[in-house]
Write a structure and sequence with these properties.
The structure is a homodimer. The first copy, chain A, contains 12 helices and 26 strands. By secondary structure, chain A is an alpha/beta fold. In chain A, the strands form 7 sheets. In chain A, strands 3-2-1-7-19-18 form a 6-stranded mixed sheet. Chain A has a 5-stranded parallel sheet with strand order 9-16-10-11-12, with helices on one face. In chain A, helix 1 packs parallel to helix 8. Chains A and B meet through helix 8, strand 22, strand 23, helix 10 and helix 11 of A and helix 8, strand 22, strand 23, helix 10 and helix 11 of B.
Chain lengths: ~475, ~475
Amino acid sequence: MRIVVVGGDAAGMSAAHSALRQARAAGREVEVEVVEATGHTSYSACGIPYWIADDVEEGADLVARTAEEHRAAGIRLRLHTRATAIDPAGRTVTVEGADPEGATDTIRYDELVLATGARPVVPDWARGPDGALLDGVHPVKTLDDGALWRDLLARAETAAAAEGRPPRAVIVGGGYIGVEMAETLVRRRFSTTLVTRSRVMGRLDEDLGARVAEALALGGVDLRTDTAVDRLVSADGEVRGRVRGVVTTDGRHVPADVVVLALGVEPATDLGRAAGLPLGTEGGYLPDGAGRLAPGVWAAGDCCEQAHRITGHRTFLPLGTHANKQGRAVGAALLGGDLRFPGAVGTAITRFVAGGEHVEVARTGLGTEEAVEAGYDVASLVTEGTTASGYMPEAAPLAIKVLADRADRRLLGVQIVGGPGAGKRIDAAAAALWGSMSVDDLAWMDLSYAPPFATAWEVLQVAARRLAERL
Amino acid sequence: MRIVVVGGDAAGMSAAHSALRQARAAGREVEVEVVEATGHTSYSACGIPYWIADDVEEGADLVARTAEEHRAAGIRLRLHTRATAIDPAGRTVTVEGADPEGATDTIRYDELVLATGARPVVPDWARGPDGALLDGVHPVKTLDDGALWRDLLARAETAAAAEGRPPRAVIVGGGYIGVEMAETLVRRRFSTTLVTRSRVMGRLDEDLGARVAEALALGGVDLRTDTAVDRLVSADGEVRGRVRGVVTTDGRHVPADVVVLALGVEPATDLGRAAGLPLGTEGGYLPDGAGRLAPGVWAAGDCCEQAHRITGHRTFLPLGTHANKQGRAVGAALLGGDLRFPGAVGTAITRFVAGGEHVEVARTGLGTEEAVEAGYDVASLVTEGTTASGYMPEAAPLAIKVLADRADRRLLGVQIVGGPGAGKRIDAAAAALWGSMSVDDLAWMDLSYAPPFATAWEVLQVAARRLAERL
């Protein structure tokens, strides 16, 4: 039996190893081959901003398992090899290798796993007439992007120092990557502007998102919300050469040595689209409960839309932790194992720690807009408190928003913005959502208390209790 | 209607305010009177070690609400007044006031709330022939104890400095207070010995407890486990005057300027015992689901044994956070409200941060011994990992033990020992236990991930997954 996996990052490699384990446990002989377009496997894309910020010494540290380690575990691995077509009827994948340049090959499979991930959204204004990105303008997605960014920032720093001014960066996009790159750039002492069409942290409700925006501003980020980019300006006014600045739709010019494209990602599903596989409203694959797309074809990771456990709808929630879990489940399922990825509830966390600010941001479940759209009668409340007992030096302020359904008191979502120790509190709420618990359960459950860690009534529970009292 | 509350700390004052709120909401006229033996109300006993360690500026900072604030809210409050007897049939409480000295009074009630808390265990060897504690030997329980400890340590520091040696402390008891006072004393540069009859952190399984012991030892605490105190030695060899040292049952002499009694607490239930109210196996009151002990008599807080949601048995789990919740529920219930304290799952957290060590300790649910005793077929596993992605500077080691029932895969308990950020992870497990979830739920649920906060597979979930694979 021959299993081919397209994509050698979190989902793909998890699937490959899981299939090997499952086969071994079942005493079956399988051959697992992974095709990966870049030269890297199993790396942490989420760690790239911290590598650029010098928290991480080298890109290799972000690699969880190297190609050699995968091969040693019995996986055939073709690096620098791009899958260009799949034929689900004939059960083949066409690939194009780098060496010899552009040589194509057709690989036969019994079971195929599509784990092609997501790719950054790149707007037209970022490209020159030749379609290439302008010099100094780039997304933050792959390990190669990370290496490029380290070079770009070093070059900008040198050039700015020569001119006796701080280096300048514009980040376009106010989501997770935008906020993380803002931390990176402020910590590297870039004069940093963040431009976003709407607001910062659109995955939070507006009231909580405003707290993140405030921390960014206090940390030194020049925020331009409700603002889009009209065009880039490059050396000599030409749309070639190095970028020099951004012109926003309100006609203002923002000088920049570098421009970070942080406009989100979209599922990389060209292979399936060309083969006629059905795609969801957000362009992702729609695997069934076991991870299957079609006979002999499976999918896992950021190229998929996932089952949201609260709404029951499919949602695009690209995240390494889901990709790992989905890959593990699919790798076992395609050999008849009974692991199933049970869906997600939309948990996410990030931080902005720079310029004297430390803000942690977390969310789980549905935001108000999502919940209303899904038909819930939403009640919500923001509660302020501290991460430790107020008299402790560790005590940092935090704000928690809890959302519940007026109809049945069921918890719908929680959002947290606060100082050190605030963010990971989201996990108790995520667990409560996982168990379809009520806001009363969250208010009265037995969460941990000691002065360095919480107030005697943990703020998450005060927040739930206050909302429960108003339902 | 006249409500009398005996005890003005967490449970009692919560009950008093809750009753007032409930009465107001129901449009009823009630009089609420609280009788408190000390001069303090609503203070954080848990914060006392941090006050002694100088993290907290003054004792008043530990007071959540002062007597004046309670009175302003409409509560009658008698401080320095001890309840000496209750008469459930006649619905009266006899009290003895401080001013005029020892004057007694009989208070009539319609509903009585016993919130007398717990008192420290004081062994015979700690007392002189007159029954009084030896000078320099004291428990850590009340705000007055805290003030005394600050004086005792200052005196010991001065005396030791005069003799050109470090001040010396012996802590007797290796539970939460023992570990917290070890932090306090090491941070105040006391040469610190901890003597315990069994081992450190007996509420953890032995393997996890050993990690705490290791941190204490590395932090400079001289540990004497499996060792009991035989007697104290005081100035001039007499069992009077200042303590000079401890003689352990193995015949060794440990010099000490102060001796901390950290041997646990027991429910303070003399009033009820004398009145013939039934008590549990651990000596605590046994309120029903609404908090009622007998017609017109209710109880809340550390004087009670609580319903354990996993075993269904009553357990003595003295903790401010439970006391607050129980008080709130009872105060409403005695006026016909429908709040109920829903029980606990045994969650607790603490830390030892001193001498260059930072270890956080947390547990929830049942330990192995408890679980076996309760009849479960226990499977468990210890998993090691890091609190953040391994490549991040924040990454600190942690160990997580997960316990599950082989019969139905239900999660039974979780224990965590690790560096900064390890402890509060327990809350996700506590929420899972609250919802009677399985070890598979914990393994696959949607917990938060980003490199500064977790590994892509959160360790708590790796721990659950590994155990799930072995069930």
